[in-house]
Amino acid sequence: MPYKRKPENQHDNENHSLKHAPREETAGDQHMKDEVLIEQNRHAATMSPGLEHGEKYHAAGKRDVELYIRTYNTLLRSSGEINLKALIQAHYNIDSSLHPDARKPYPDMSAFIYSVLRLPDVINQCELVLLGQSEEVFLQQGFHVNKWQAVTASARRRKWFYNGKKTLAAYVASVSDTDDIVPVLVAFQIEWNKMYYLLKEDPTTMQLLETQVDPGSPVFAEISKVLRQRLHIAEDDWQRLQVIWGDHLWEKLHEIGSQKKSFNLRMLGGSHVGYVKATRKWWAPVRNLLDTLGQPDRPVYFVSSNTHSLINLLSGFSLRNEKALTEFARSGADPYLAEECAKIQEGTVPGNWQNFLYFATREWLKISAGREAARARLQEAQDRGIWHVGARHGLEIDAQVFELSKLIPAEIDPRSRMSGMDVLKKSDAIILNIDYPLGMAAYRMMREIMENLSQICGIYVLGKAATLNGSIGDVMISNVIMDEHSQNTYWFDNTFRANEVQPYLIYGSVLDNQKAVSAKGTYLQNRQYLDFYYQSNYTVVEMEGGPYLNAIYEDQYLTRYPTDDNINLLSLPYELGILHYASDTPYTRGKNLGAGSLSYFGMDSTYAGTVAIVRRIFANEIAAIQRRLTHPLDEALAPLPDEGMPAQETADKKTRVV
């Protein structure tokens, strides 16, 4: 059993008080228009928010973040609606690393784009946002979300429902969802209203947005330039808005200029039991599938990643349709695909051909030929023992089951193949893959899975993270994780090393032996907060590692996970591997994958990590089968601990890892 030792005051934030630092006051005459300060002197660089009770300016730190969290959690206890205007000052005070220019009069486009990608498109029409744990909670309050329109956000998996008027409902799977939704809405409102005032400064600006002009004409380009300059948006940020909104860019800007944004927010109930019920409802169809497949207590390799990489590597769908995909890419129907295809085939860029095929498949499935192939895709997958369980009952987390015995080795991604794969036909093991949860939802889901599955052979986590010492696209491998929810610091033996991932990574580096922090939210970080951890050599900031380890603790000990403790998980009865790929670098003032390129660049690190996980599972299962075939009686004859064999040796016998 893993060893636990008491804290050694390593991360006692009370002993690291932040020094008060004076902040320069803004030049020029300023006045407040609700939450947005409109600066008369356009040359001023910053704005100074008013502080009450004579409080002095100070560098924002962890204390301000905790105050922000307490503020909105306290307000959300109300049975009525709260206006997000009440949270604007608290949002300013945290000096979020994702929202560095919140106080400035001109738009912080990185923060705005980050928020736009994590909210449904209908958010522009909404005034009220409802939060609830389940459909029953909404129905009990008179909101028939089962009849509302289901909507999605491009960069955040969550169940959203729109009533067609001005109300949006969101399912929350854990407290982490609240920590995510609230700051995103506040940031969106702040940046929306900045642009609202800028669009209203000159009456002709709105008239320009109403002009009917051919998008391909020089006049359109000239008007766009004028609009961009009046909104003080950099050219590269303008281009990113064009990628996101396409031909609706002017229409969206007109919506912003037509009305100020003032969200109301309401939490419908919310309890620990409610989260447990929602998680059990999510698990029920997964359990039903396992029962249907027979042998519900099969050996399980658990993976938390996404729903595209594993199935692409193991199903062979894109490889079987390689010719059609190549012809589609070369056709020029999508200029970007045609250009990338030529570069890879000519060797002018070091891209991976399989990754390109997986990326091209998404676009190919949108045309008639691709849709025809997609009709047979589901049956082909099931013939290969691949089953999909769509998200239902509140939690927007899909699940996949892979029966190792039914996979066809010749169709598996070449990077994942290895010798001895023919013996997998004798395997009774499965891979259970879930779309990685957000924050504390990982704890609830991992615990539910552990309560229902008795033969877990390995736990592998692949997720996104911020890096404080690397670059976007790098892969980080941590063996120490500090969880902000429980304030526990975990030491564990991460099964992965750099040399297991680096051969499959083209554009980035692999950094192992790192230390990670499981933060409460992406917006809930600032420079002082990051500096505090960086000085203690914590270089990875993510959200699900700590919650997963809290659940693993409860699988090994008799009590619920503790708080503010130092815990050693070096001797687990199953293999544990955690990989994170860098999606943003907070020290570069909010630049991240959400604000940057939307190409398939991010697939490089995702698939490098997935290949490493698949190879690890295959190697372990092949070794387990060969061991079973060579020594078929070993497991049956192994004595119990009270028959003379130490408990640790018995555990080693049952461990199915190399």
Automatic annotation (TrEMBL):
Residues 1-30, 636-658 are annotated as: Disordered. It holds the Pfam family DUF6909. InterPro entries: DUF6909. It comes from the Bacteria. This is Uncharacterized protein. It comes from Dictyobacter halimunensis.
